[in-house]
């Protein structure tokens, strides 16, 4: 399940169009949330999402993130939408 971006005092800063997705296995959910929280705290203008690693392909298609922070895939490289170089 995805954690949506926080609505932290948006009146102070203008929102960026940049979306960040943090996705790790459920056994590393605390690690995933700490990374997402740190990015939100340091860059409140970014849209930061966190979700389970098993839902990565779905999240890539629905969020279309600019940046993805995740554990290494077990099988090959993902195709379709996602972070672009």
Structure commentary:
With 85 residues, the protein is of the alpha/beta class. It has a domain at 19-70. The protein is 26% helix and 19% strand. The protein has two helices and three strands, in the order βαβαβ. The protein has helices at 29-42, 56-63, and strands at residues 19-24, 47-52, 67-70. Strands 2-1-3 form a three-stranded parallel β-sheet, with helices on both faces. Helix 1 (29-42) links the parallel strand 1 and strand 2 (47-52). The chain is globular. It starts with 18 loop residues before the first strand and ends in a 15-residue tail after the last strand. The model has no long low-confidence stretch (mean pLDDT 81).
Q: Spans with pLDDT under 50 lasting ≥5 residues?
A: none
Number of helices: 2
Percent of residues in helices:
25-40%
For the sheet with most strands, the description reads: 3 strands, parallel
Question: Helices and strands, in N-to-C order?
Answer: EHEHE
* SS content category: alpha/beta
Mean pLDDT: 81
Could you give the topology of this structure?
Layout: E1 19-24, H1 29-42, E2 47-52, H2 56-63, E3 67-70
Task: Compose a concise summary of this entry.
The protein is of the alpha/beta class and 85 residues long. The chain contains two helices and three strands. It has a three-stranded parallel sheet, sandwiched between helices.
């Amino acid at each position: 399940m995805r954690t949506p971006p926080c609505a932290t005092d948006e009146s102070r800063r203008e929102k960026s169009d940049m979306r960040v997705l943090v996705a790790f296995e459920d056994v590393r959910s605390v690690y995933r949330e700490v990374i997402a929280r740190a990015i939100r705290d340091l860059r409140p203008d970014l849209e930061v999402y966190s979700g389970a690693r098993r839902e990565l392909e779905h999240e890539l298609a629905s969020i279309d993130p600019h940046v993805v922070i995740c554990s290494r895939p077990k099988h090959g490289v993902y195709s379709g939408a996602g972070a672009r170089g």
